Fold this protein.
Amino acid sequence: MELYDAIHRRRDVRAQFTGEPVPADALHRILDAAHAAPSVGYSQPWDFVLVRDAAVRRRFHRHVQAERATFAATLDGAAAERFARIKIDGVLESTLSIVVTYDPERGGPAVLGRHSIADAGLYSVCLAIQNLWLAATAEGLGVGWVSFYREPFLAELLGVPAGIRPVAWLCVGPVTHLETVPDLERHGWRRRRPLAEAVHHDRWPQRVTDRPNS
């Protein structure tokens, strides 16, 4: 698959997992692609926890559903109705989850390039996640990033050491298909912002205000 095809075909998958296992050779390739991501100071601050244990995934899923209910309670009217139709995870439908973590001490104590931007290491982890996602798409696999959880709960669940931050729980697996339109757009939650609105030249655009009558 061409790079641009993978970028535009990539979807946040929740409902399309088949439940089949991820082939070992494909898993190695997508992890290798993630590990090849650029990182500040060549610190490579990520780790990948492969979660296959059904009991662990069920416990995490119960936590996710509780957090979904917490968010749903903040909505009313049309927003509540739209959200009720949206599936937020594929934790039980996929047979593999990959938890990506961030170790801020990796490459320390002096991480080249991070002295003035503390979050540069976290950005590096996000680049690894994007590499993994695009590689999985090229392999014909789906990925779903679950964000309805509390970091301390996930750290305790997986025994993540203090000081290491769990950044993403990714559901990974074969899918029946990838939707042509993102879920949140299909369900009317948000629409894609046109590229032209996101591109500025030389500086941030100033808001146009009405001039007083002269």
Observations:
- Strands lie at 46-51, 96-102, 141-146, 165-174.
- The longest strand covers residues 165-174.
